[in-house]
Amino acid sequence: MKKVLLSVLLLSFSFLAFAQEKNEEKMDQFITDLMSKMTLEEKIGQLNLPVSGIMTGDAKSEGVYDKIRNGKVGALFGIKGAAECKKYQDIAMQESRLKIPLLFGLDVIHGYETVFPIPLALASSWNMDLIEKSARIAAKEASADGIGWAFSPMVDITRDPRWGRVAESAGEDPYLGGEIAKAMIRGYQGDFSKAENIMACVKHFALYGAPDGGRDYNTVDMSRQRMFNEYMHPFKASVEANAGSFMTAFNDFEGIPVTANKYLIKDVLRNQWKFDGLVVSDYTGISEMIMHGIGDYATVAARALEAGVEMDMVSEAFNSTLVKSIEEGKASVESVDAACRHILEAKYKLGLFDDPYKYCDVARSKRDIYTAENRKEARQIATECMVLLKNDNQTLPLKRAGKVALIGPLANSAINMPGMWSFHSDFVKPVTLLEGLKEVMGTNAVVNYAKGSNFLSDAELEKKLSYKNISERDGRSDAEMLKEALVTAQNADVIVAALGESSEMSGEGASRANLDIPEPQKTLLKELLNTGKPVVLVLFTGRPLVLTWEHENVPAILNVWFAGSEAGGAIADVLVGSTNPSGKLPMSFPYHVGQIPVYYNHKNTGRPMPPNMSYIKYRSNYQDIPNVPLYPFGYGLSYSSFSYGDVSLSATEMTPANKLIATVKVTNTSTVDGAEVVQLYIKDIVATSTRPVKELKAFEKVFIKAGETKEVKFEISVEDLKYYNHDLNFVAEPGEFELMIGTDSRVNNGIKFTLR
Ligand code: BGC
Question: Are 562 and 413 members of one domain?
């Protein structure tokens, strides 16, 4: 019976492979025919991705129309709305010589009009099904509005919370980052067959997440061994997940801007990993290489093309210089052909040659965008992303009766709910915490609100004129606002302080050197604590902040990140305990900025600190602060409590051919049902290169009823033990390993096994 099944399976696999081959042959033939009709200018035109529409106002449209007419645009960026996209597509389909359909791209990053939590928050859910679902809904909404290409996921590994773009990342761990990248790609792309499937764009290739000093766009340099072991896994996993496109990063690496870095794009991405999709530059990434100092407009364009960049986002450098550069022998027709082919292939795979108006069905927008169903999903997903950082087990969950004082600049600010990449949403619609809390608490409770303070002090606001929150600035003085807050607090049974960053304090171009809750919010928090009432800090942030003082002084801290359109309701659900928090940090929260970068999977060094010791001279440590972060990777509390039994292994020896099964029993020792993220880490005890103290290799989020025990099993294979050695070969070296399973990355006392 088994044999019959196997043959049926093999047969269907070979049939699928055959069908795929046939499809590819058909596509190749179609594109070869089409390209044989194209002039060099038209091929270069396909390589052009200008911006228009909501990004620039309509001012640029006229110029863009002409370019489309003349075959000088391959894809367009910034257009919103099916009718609007149709307008541009009509020009391509009716007025251009070859009638090649346009592709419409946009930064659909964490939702579309229904906004999901920011990516760092989504990562905190450790729930791949939910993350995939968020991308699927985003794709459904965006595609109903004309968009066929999302500039997402961002898979940069981030270890420096000063960098504002950590908000867009999945945090510090390569394995978790890889799993999330795959889930997002599955969610966006599906199998490309439906009008709801859009193309993903994996960014920012590569190493953009490691800028010197955490300053955006800054130089990156590191060993290639570190690059492969610690930064590349999510990119490689994305290729394996069939991502349709990659975006190059703004930074340089080894002295060459990535957008002209042949080693990264051609040697690694194309030749080693066999990526066969399309490579696009970042926004003006090509022309910015003039500022990097590697040449003039024509030189940087030729260098980008020859390094493997195929589409020019916004610089217009390919369009304006390549013909001449080719005549002068500085760029080649072969590179233009290869690039043009990849762009046409992307359009073909999306089905645009069959139906150029696939994403232009105007009726869909009403049906599919910002629906009650999508909003419901957004609320549920948001509740899974929140991380309970501290609880004295009395303050939270909130009782549903009595008086709550809700205080802080984030308590009733719709504009600050969605988070940074939500310009395509409606900033008036998001549910605020005040609204959510009132809804959830119902009529048995009174919720009184006071703003309490501005986000930043007057002096800071003066310096940051570009911050939108200036418009949210209160006309009253800090003293007046504080006074009102204290009166509100006096009458309450519990104070909920909604504090932190405004949403534009993180994201692109938003690095910070201080990672505190900004003044005057911290002053407000101190005054609220001085009332002697229980205080819950509801922390809004796009990055790990330094909460050392808060941890010592505030009874309960719930980190809600920026939770999207339904933030207010979702936060309220968690505060009252109708949803039990289950998020775990994907990035360490430092004890002090001076520790940065601080991450769990560091090396041991030759002089490690013995555990639980304060300063020791001639050891790798600081005189004035501990080595460990305040809240480590993988950390997060619940209203339940869980205990772990001993880990057992199916064998103590492993060969490349066999697998080990690790088993652990996890018990919910509380009276509340809850979910726990069970995390498995491995340490390579002896290797030819230095190895991290531990690395996440598997995890499972399990729901465990109050008082129940669940057995969790993980399979470990030789693949999980491999790393890039000094010669950059991906190998598993025989010897001893240690396997640890626990509730966060602090787990130790593992069980040993040997790889033969
Ligand atoms: C960002 C990209 C983004 C692009 C288009 C750039 O500044 O780095 O992440 O996709 O703009 O908006």
Answer: yes
**Residue from 80, 118, 282, 423 to probe ligand 1 pocket by mutation (most atoms less than 8 Å from CB):** 282
Domain co-membership, 572 together with 659: no
* Same domain assignment for residues 388 and 509: yes
Q: How buried is 746 (Cβ within 10 angstroms: 0-12 exposed, 13-18 middle, 19+ buried)?
A: middle
Alpha carbon nearest to ligand 1 atom 11, residue: 283
Protein residue closest via CA to atom 8 of ligand 1: 282
Q: Is residue 328 part of a domain?
A: no
Dig out the tokens for 112 from the structure.
Answer: 């579309």
What pLDDT score was predicted for residue 460?
Answer: 78
Asked if 391 and 585 count as a contact pair (C-beta separation under 8 A), the reply is no
Domain membership of residue 226 (yes or no) is no
CATH number at residue 707: 2.60.40.10
Ligand 1 centre to CA of 249 (Å) is: 9
Domain range for 702 is 640-755
Site residues for ligand 1, CB cut-off 6 Å? 107, 151, 203, 282-283, 508
Pairing of strands 695-704, 674-684: antiparallel
Task: Give pLDDT < 70 ranges for the chain.
Answer: 1-16, 18, 54-62, 427-428, 464-471
Candidate from 51, 107, 312 with most ligand 1 atoms within 8 A of CB, to mutate: 107
What are the residues facing 26 on neighbouring strands?
Answer: none
Determine the Cα–Cα distance for residues 430 and 427; give it in Å rounded to an integer.
6
Same domain, 412 and 550: yes
- Tally of domains in the chain: 2
Nearest CA to ligand 1 atom 5: 283
Can you give the pTM of this predicted structure? 0.96
Q: Residues 654, 544: one domain?
A: no
Query: Atom 10, ligand 1: which residue's CA is nearest?
Result: 151
- The Cβ-side half-sphere exposure at 395, using a 13 Å CA radius, reads 22
How high is the pLDDT of residue 55?
A: 58
Token representation of residue 631: 């809240």
| Ligand 1 centroid from CA 283, angstroms | 6
Whole-angstrom distance, CA of residue 578 vs CA of residue 517: 28
**Helix, strand, coil fractions of the chain, as percent rounded to 5:** 40, 20, 45
Q: Provide the sign of the torsion angle of the four alpha carbons 392, 397, 398, 401, taken in this order.
A: negative
Name residue, tokens 């072969």.
334
Q: Which residues contact 727 (CB under 8 A, 6 or more apart)?
A: none
What does the pLDDT read at residue 22?
82
Ligand 1, atom nearest to 201 Cα? 10
Ligand 1 centre and the CA of 308: distance in Å?
19
- Is the domain of 572 the same as that of 677? no
| Of the residues 526, 549, 576, the one at which a domain ends | 576
Which atom in ligand 1 lies closest to the alpha carbon of residue 250? 8
103 CA from centroid of ligand 1 (Å): 17
**How far away, in angstroms, is 57 Cα from ligand 1 center?**
17
Say what the pLDDT of residue 56 is: 59
Which atom of ligand 1 is least distant from the CA of 249? 8
Q: Which of 576, 596, 622 is the last residue of a domain?
A: 576
77's tokens: 């960026």
Q: pLDDT value at position 458? A: 77
Dig out the tokens for 703 from the structure.
């729901």
Domain with residue 400: its CATH number is 3.40.50.1700
Tokens for 653? 């020896």
Residues 463, 390 share a domain: yes
Residue 338 placed within a domain: no
List the one residue out of 206, 223, 118 whose CA is nearest residue 157: 206
Question: Within a domain: residue 672?
Answer: yes
- For 285, the token pair is 């990434």
Q: Does 566 share its domain with 644?
A: no
Nearest to 275 by CA among 264, 286, 287, 291: 264
State which ligand 1 atom lies nearest to the alpha carbon of 168: 9
Residue 104: the pLDDT is 98
Protein residue whose Cα sits closest to atom 2 of ligand 1: 282
Q: Residue 196's pLDDT is what?
A: 98
Kindly list the catalytic residues: 282
